[in-house]
Amino acid sequence: MASFGIPTLKNPSSLSLSSKPRLPSVLSASFPNSLRFPRSTPQGGRRLLIITASAASSFSNKPTVLVAEKLGEAGLELLKEFANVDCSYNLSPEELCTKISLCDALIVRSGTKVNREVFESSGGRLKVVGRAGVGIDNVDLSAATEHGCLVVNAPTANTVAAAEHGIALLAAMARNVAQADASVKAGKWQRNKYVGVSLVGKTLAVMGFGKVGSEVARRAKGLGMHVIAHDPYAPADRARAIGVELVSFDEALATADFISLHMPLTPATNKMLNDETFAKMKKGVRIVNVARGGVIDEEALVRALDDGIVAQAALDVFSQEPPKPDSKLVQHERVTVTPHLGASTMEAQEGVAIEIAEAVVGALKGELAATAVNAPMVPAEVLTELKPYVELAEKLGRLAVQLVAGGSGVKTVKVSYATSRAPDDFDSRLLRAMITKGIIEPISSVFVNLVNADFTAKQRGLRITEERVLLDGSPESPLESIQVQIENVESKFASAMSESGEIRVEGRVKDGVPHLTKVGSFEVDVSLEGSIILCRQVDQPGMIGTVGSILGEENVNVSFMSVGRVAPRKHAVMAIGVDDQPSKESLKRIGEVPAIEEFVFLKL
Ligand SMILES: NC(=O)C1=CN([C@@H]2O[C@H](COP(=O)(O)OP(=O)(O)OC[C@H]3O[C@@H](n4cnc5c(N)ncnc54)[C@H](O)[C@@H]3O)[C@@H](O)[C@H]2O)C=CC1
Ligand SMILES: O=C(O)C(=O)COP(=O)(O)O
């Protein structure tokens, strides 16, 4: 397994000196406008996410990306700039499981089942699965989440291709193009047999009014069709904007001459067209499916075709792909089939390849990045705004846990967010995930990211409660400060305890940089970069110089110093930011300075 050489503290009781390498830390997360999440899709799927980590710059080896299905050249080129790329197509499930333990990322299309076994076989190395397309029904999202693996897809680049294929099938079906073509090639000339039906003036029900569905609707309107749509989650104004009426499921079935399916395959949509629902359809309805085969009960469709309820069907997708060659459905005379070609245009495949390569590389690099399916969405415009708060949250968690005395179990963490943003404009999931990461990673070998943060915290019995402190003033920045308190523990740095007996650290973002602003009841101000030495001392002149010169002798660069005191000439807490780790000897000498009552070295 590749080692990326990122030092992480293993055990808070030996904070200053022990370190261990760890895998690239990929943290995925999400935030919508002004820290609020939009509603999830029924898949629980969501789009843009924040990925933070500092792994890539420290890669000692390139990460390895396994590309298990054909990917456009432009995407491969992008991947190769950053990673070792192993293009191994047509792997058996066993071969995939064997290879996966050597891979940091896996890229697939719809033809590869990325099931629990794949995640289990990865031995924790697999950090990102990239689905070069939309549907992620071939990826076990729960298993991915439990294994801390981010799943990203390429949700936009093949939308138009899929919509165009839907329209192609609609027209081809209505005019018997495929059947007539086969007939002419067989030497026949059956002009009467292949009389079709017209599209103009007919009612098309678009089931699933998302990206593809709405593009199909737009095009069908251009063909003069009357378009209605059923989608329990689609906003009515989007439908209105393109002149489409949203209707109930039953109304769509009862009124449509043509039905085009564009919903994802989920437990709720599985076999949603079945004997019962076919019975509600207008006799002679025609059905197009470029979504997923599983949304139709295929045996029921054969019955509906034979009973004359369904006049024709045009199918790009099947519950089992490829379908059995002798499948009654595939062989049915009134059924037109294509081998899952919806996304297969030159243009879409280049676009998808670039989209997925960027998402996977972004995730592996640990940058604020693109798309995730097993994490909620963050609109791009809020990513920049949030980045320093995300860092602040993780670092406060990291600091707080390092202040816990060995032997104290960390069970309850209380987080307060001071903000002047309205309650419905504030969602803390990303920050909570970062704090969880900061708390858990230094004290365990578990790798935490947004995807598995709540799950991991729960598994470890860590309870994180949150409160929001509403401030007056204009909500220009998302947050004024974050306070992290660890309850019912002792601290190795007694001054970090608040009056009410918790370890307390507080920070805020200043000029885009996270700062530590409070430790226990002492105000400090030190930028959260590098590492920090906290000293409690008798407040007297010369202390900064004394400690500074010990560090200077060892050439440890001091980036920041700040002294917070309770009252002049009483106790003060000095926070010193250092770029490098001081030696044991220097730390010992700092501890021996007579006015210094206690000190701790904390790694960020
Ligand atoms: N044949 C092919 O090659 C391709 C197939 N697809 C498939 O097309 C489907 C749609 O893709 P996109 O439009 O990009 O996804 P999308 O997520 O933009 O749209 C899906 C829509 O379905 C709706 N929906 C969910 N449950 C529903 C239900 N029970 N009834 C009605 N609507 C429901 C959602 O609210 C959403 O608006 C997916 O299954 C995708 O895998 C997409 C691209 C290519
Ligand atoms: O993007 C999708 O959902 C698709 O169905 C396209 O699948 P493919 O990448 O062509 O195997």
From TrEMBL:
Catalytic activity: (2R)-3-phosphoglycerate + NAD(+) = 3-phosphooxypyruvate + NADH + H(+)
Subcellular location: Plastid, Chloroplast
PROSITE patterns: ACT (PS51671), D_2_HYDROXYACID_DH_1 (PS00065), D_2_HYDROXYACID_DH_2 (PS00670), D_2_HYDROXYACID_DH_3 (PS00671)
Coiled-coil regions listed: none
EC assignment: 1.1.1.95
Segments of skewed composition (Low complexity): 12-21
GO cellular component, one term: chloroplast stroma
Gene Ontology biological-process annotations: L-serine biosynthetic process
Region spans: Disordered: 1-21
The keyword Nucleus is assigned to this record: no
Pathway: Amino-acid biosynthesis; L-serine biosynthesis; L-serine from 3-phospho-D-glycerate: step 1/3
Pfam families: 2-Hacid_dh (PF00389), 2-Hacid_dh_C (PF02826), ACT (PF01842), PGDH_inter (PF19304)
Ranges for domain ACT: 532-604
Sorted UniProt keywords: Amino-acid biosynthesis, Chloroplast, NAD, Oxidoreductase, Plastid, Serine biosynthesis, Transit peptide
Chief site of localization: plastid
GO MF annotation, one: NAD binding
Family to which this protein belongs: Belongs to the D-isomer specific 2-hydroxyacid dehydrogenase family.
Cross-referenced NCBIfam families: PGDH (TIGR01327)
The protein's name in its UniProt record: D-3-phosphoglycerate dehydrogenase
